[in-house]
Write a structure and sequence with these properties.
Helix content: 40-55%
Low-confidence stretches: none
CATH architecture of the largest domain: 2-Layer Sandwich
Distance between the termini: 81 Å
Number of domains: 3
Order of helices and strands: EHHEEHEEHHHEHEEHEEHEE
Radius of gyration: 52 Å
Number of helices: 9
Subcellular location: Cell membrane
Keywords: Coiled coil, Kinase, Phosphoprotein, Transferase, Two-component regulatory system
Main location: membrane
CATH superfamily of the largest domain: Histidine kinase-like ATPase, C-terminal domain
GO molecular function, one term: kinase activity
Largest sheet: 5 strands, antiparallel
Number of strands: 12
Structural class: alpha+beta
EC number: 2.7.13.3
C-alpha cells in the first residue's frame, strides 16, 4: 500500500513562521473534521515544537498527512536538518506530547524528526480521495494572517477556554453542594436506621429471652405431664386389673350362680374395666415414648415371620365378611429394626383400620423405595378430611362424626404409632379421601444409623 499524498508542506525559517504553522495547523485540523478543542491542541503543539526546532537550527520542514485507512488520524512530521539531539529534544517536548495522541522523536535520516498523531473524532466526515483533493485545494488558497491576527485568535480561544473552565467549576460546585446535601440525607437515614435496628435488636433479644423462658416452662410442663401420666397409669393398672379378675371370678362356674341381671351387670363391669385398662396401657406407653425411655433393640427382623404373626393375631378382629383382611407376602424379606416397636406400630395401624372399615378391605404391604422401606396400611373406610390429616396424630383427638364399626377408640393409637416411628428413625404420614378410605405409610431407613 503506497503512502498517502501529503495535504500540505511548509518550511520554518524565521520566528514569524511559528505563527504561520500554528494557523495552518488549525486550518488543517478544521478541514479534516476535528472539534474546536482538538484544533487548538494541535495548533498549540505545532507552534511549540516549531519554536524549539528553530532554536536549534536554521530551518525545519513541516508535512501534514491524513491517514485514510485503519484509524483515521492527522499526522504532522517536522524534520530538522540538525541531528544527534533526539533524547534532549524529547525531554524538552515532554509536556507537548500530552496535547496529541502520540509523539515520536528520533534521529533517523539526515537530521532529527518529530512525528505527531491526533485521531479524528467518530463523527468526522469520511476522508475519501475526492475530499482529500478538495482539502488540498482549499489549503493551497489559504492566506496566512499576521501575528496580531493569530494573537487575537489565541485570545479568543483562551477566553473560550476560561469560560468553559468557569462553567465546569460552577458545575463542580453545584455537584459538590448536591453531594454534600445527599451525604447529609444519607447520614441522617443511616442514623435513623441504626436507631431502629438497635431498637429492633433489643426487641429480638427480649423476645428470644422470653421464648427461652417459655421453652423451659414448656419442657418442664411436658416432663411433668409425662411423669403424671406414667405414675397415674401405673397406679391405675393394679386396681383395674383386680376389677377384671374379680369380675371373672364372679361369673366362674365354681362360684355361686348369679341371676341374669347380676350376670349382665358383672359383664358390664368387666367390659368397662377392660376398656379402662386399654386406655391406661395406652397412656403409659405414650408417656414412655414422650420421656424417651424406649431404647430400640436393633436386630435383623424377619418380615415374613412378623407378617405371619400379625395375620394370626389380628384375624379375630376381622370378623365381618364384608371386610377382606389381607396381609401380603413382604416384598422385602428382612429389615434391621426393633421387632417389638415395629410390630406395635403396624398393629396400631391395622387395628385402627379394622375399627373404621365397614365394607371393602384392609391391606398391609411393604416395598423398597430408594434408601427407605415403606410399610403401607390401606383401607376402604370412612376416610379423613384433608384439614384433619395432622390433627389425628394429636392425643385423644377423634374425627368428628366418626364412629368405630367395632371396639372403641381412645385417640392414643395413632399418636403413639407416630412417636414410635420417630424412635425407629422414620416417619408416619397419611393420605385419605372422605368416603374412599385411608392410606398410612410408615417410612423407615433400610440401614438405620
Amino acid at each position: 500500500m503506497t503512502a498517502p499524498e501529503p495535504l500540505m508542506r511548509m518550511r520554518l525559517r524565521v520566528e514569524q513562521d511559528i505563527f504561520t504553522v500554528r494557523q495552518l495547523g488549525r486550518e488543517v485540523a478544521r478541514a479534516v473534521g476535528m472539534e474546536s478543542q482538538d484544533q487548538t491542541r494541535m495548533a498549540t503543539a505545532l507552534s511549540e515544537v516549531g519554536r524549539v526546532l528553530l532554536a536549534q537550527g536554521p530551518h525545519a520542514d513541516v508535512t501534514f498527512t491524513a491517514e485514510l485507512y485503519g484509524v483515521p488520524s492527522l499526522q504532522v512530521t517536522m524534520a530538522h536538518s540538525a541531528g544527534g539531539g533526539a533524547a534532549r529534544l524529547a525531554e524538552q517536548l515532554q509536556q507537548v506530547g500530552r496535547l496529541v495522541d502520540m509523539m515520536e522523536v528520533d534521529d533517523g535520516g539526515p537530521g532529527t524528526t518529530v512525528r505527531m498523531v491526533r485521531r479524528l473524532p467518530l463523527g468526522a466526515p469520511v476522508l475519501t480521495p475526492t475530499r482529500m483533493d478538495e482539502i488540498r485545494a482549499r489549503l493551497a488558497r489559504h492566506v496566512p494572517g499576521s501575528p496580531l491576527d493569530e494573537l487575537a485568535v489565541q485570545n479568543q480561544q483562551l477566553i473560550a477556554a476560561l469560560d468553559e473552565v468557569r462553567a465546569q467549576r460552577d458545575d463542580l460546585a453545584r455537584l459538590n453542594a448536591e453531594l454534600e446535601e445527599t451525604n447529609r440525607g444519607v447520614m441522617a437515614l443511616y442514623h435513623q436506621l441504626s436507631d431502629e435496628l438497635e431498637e429492633t435488636n433489643r426487641g429480638v433479644v427480649a423476645l428470644y429471652a422470653e421464648l427461652d423462658e417459655k421453652s423451659v416452662q414448656l419442657r418442664a410442663a411436658s416432663e411433668a405431664k409425662s411423669r403424671f401420666l406414667a405414675n397415674v397409669s401405673h397406679e391405675l393398672r393394679a386396681p383395674v386389673t383386680a376389677i377384671i379378675g374379680l369380675g371373672r371370678l364372679l361369673v366362674d362356674s365354681s362360684s355361686d350362680e348369679l341371676t341374669e341381671d347380676q350376670a349382665r351387670q358383672v359383664e358390664l363391669i368387666r367390659t368397662s374395666a377392660t376398656d379402662l385398662l386399654t386406655l391406661v396401657n395406652g397412656l403409659l406407653d405414650l408417656a414412655k415414648a414422650e420421656a424417651g425411655r424406649f431404647e430400640p433393640n436393633w436386630t435383623e427382623v424377619d418380615l415374613k415371620a412378623m407378617f405371619g404373626q400379625l395375620r394370626g393375631t389380628l384375624r379375630p378382629l376381622a370378623t365381618r365378611p364384608e371386610v377382606e383382611f389381607v396381609v401380603e407376602e413382604p416384598a422385602v424379606p428382612a429389615l434391621r429394626s426393633d421387632e417389638v416397636l415395629l410390630a406395635q406400630v403396624l398393629r396400631n395401624l391395622l387395628t385402627n383400620a379394622l375399627k373404621f372399615t365397614e365394607f371393602g378391605s384392609v391391606r398391609l404391604g411393604v416395598r423398597r423405595s430408594g434408601a427407605e422401606v415403606e410399610f403401607v396400611v390401606a383401607d376402604t373406610g370412612t376416610g379423613i378430611p384433608p384439614e384433619l390429616h395432622e390433627r389425628i396424630f394429636e392425643e385423644f383427638y377423634q374425627v368428628p362424626g366418626s364412629k368405630p364399626i367395632s371396639g372403641k377408640g381412645t385417640g392414643l393409637g395413632l399418636p403413639y404409632a407416630r412417636r414410635l416411628a420417630g424412635i425407629l428413625g422414620g416417619g408416619l404420614r397419611v393420605e385419605s379421601v372422605p368416603g374412599e378410605g385411608s392410606r398410612f405409610t410408615l417410612q423407615l431407613p433400610a440401614e438405620p444409623s
